[in-house]
Write a structure and sequence with these properties.
about 325 residues; alpha/beta; D-Maltodextrin-Binding Protein, domain 2; Double Stranded RNA Binding Domain; 3 domains; five-stranded mixed beta sheet; 13 strands; about 35% helix; globular; binds the ligand NCc1[nH]cc(CCC(=O)O)c1CC(=O)O
Length: about 325
Amino acid sequence: MLDKIIRIATRQSPLALWQAQYVQSQLMACHPGLQVELVPMVTKGDIILDTPLAKVGGKGLFVKELELAMLDGRADIAVHSMKDVPVEFPEGLGLVTICEREDPRDAFVSNHYASLAELPHGSVVGTSSLRRQCQLRQKRPDLVIRDLRGNVGTRLSKLDNGEYDAIILAVAGLKRLGLENRIRTALTPEECLPAVGQGAVGIECRLDDQNTRDLLAPLAHRETTVRVEAERAMNMRLEGGCQVPIGSYAELDGDQLWLRALVGAPDGSQMVSGERRGPAANAYSMGVELAEELLANGAREILQEVYKGNAPQ
Ligand SMILES: NCc1[nH]cc(CCC(=O)O)c1CC(=O)O
């Protein structure tokens, strides 16, 4: 076991590297003597930077190259932000480990205003996330939402250049990059329901690679795994990828799981939401049932418009 090397396929954005290095150091701490190397790669999502993600279309734009590397045997594992991981995996690969979740909330970031409520009428807010967009528009129809792409550092420089009055980013990403001081307020789940898996890091590998799976096992975090299982089951039933106006967020209190979800039209004109409470053992079925409730209450029509690409923005 000790002469084994684990190779981690990773994108090269600062956040992806942070996540890969986090798993690298956890693996080395759990298995003294184990060698863990990073295999840096470029993905389509890193190349197509000028088009709004929802229009580029493909789910999993950032993970396909990493998955090919694992299937080819050039890498053993890939580390993902759970919110960017598609609901389905190529044959032979799967998500085997979910690590402890960081703060799952969205952050309000601005150089002039302390909170969403303080933003003057007509302020320009940057986000490319349809989920953030629909929730912002619902609360503040007066705001002008503009697309904002690129890695976290690029997005912050666009804010600093004066292109936006405020931007919305995940708290987790900012904390991991040591940029917590840029957060003016964290939005509560009531203000902006987080994305499926937001703040959690997951590890994918070849399902037949039992040796690697055994090495990964101690990195799994039980509570996070249950929460993300419920959130992803919801998303899966909605057939939602990562670029959809869907929020899905679960909390665990002892054995009691509380799952909340919403589907909204990107222009904020419609919003369908619901919740479920139940034992953690029912995480998966709670997700599926909540998705079915939302579909029956209008989410089906909202999502159809979004997938057709002609939802009002
Ligand atoms: N969509 C990009 C992305 N994917 C994961 C994170 C960081 C937070 C996380 O790990 O959930 C971010 C940046 C952001 O949304 O601000």
